[in-house]
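User: Hi! I'm working on a homework problem where we have to compare a predicted structure to a textbook description. Could you give me the structure for the chain below?
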Amino acid sequence: MTAAAPPRALLWDVGNVIVRWNPRTLFAKIFKEPAELDWFLSHVCTMDWHGETDRGLTFADNIARLTPLYPDHAEQIAAWWDRWPEMFSGTFPETEGVMDDLAARGVPQFGLTNMSSESWPGVQAMSPVFRHFQDVVVSAEEGAIKPERRIYEIVLERTGLNPGDLLFIDDSAANIAAADAMGFHTHLFTDPAALRPMIQARGLL
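Assistant: Happy to help. Predicted structure tokens:
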């Protein structure tokens, strides 16, 4: 059996790979009781609910849909967008360093993110490394989200590359599994310190 050819380009997830994002960073300031915080994020502002903005619904419309169901939490629900920047806590310097070094070597880099088109400009402003992207597929602009097969097909159409050309890095096991099934090279991002050795082992640095 012929060994798979090594990748020649990077496909980066953004949240929790390049920038640190966690709703708890904000809502721990709003809810002083951990149990109340846990209940709010598991029953009110859930990831399934938030996913609709990743698919293209505006924050205003998504909040307007939810607020009548939980009127006692209207202020907290509104904070999801009003205080959105407070969900971020900086970047991963390990990722930024690798991206800079890949760019210096001329390795093509692309982005694939589940994100609202409303929040994407602000996220790009968080780090200069976003300038290294030749193209970025933003889920809200496509009406498809990871791990749906269609969004990976859009990446291939936009980049003109084959799955085996791309090394996809993401922090979600489900997203990685979907890319694996299509033949992408993949790496599940769990340890920032492991990123550079992995890239080096793939022959890209």
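For your comparison, note the following. Residues 21-87 form one domain. The beta strands are 9-12, 19-21, 88-91, 109-113, 133-138, 166-170, 185-188. Good luck with the assignment!
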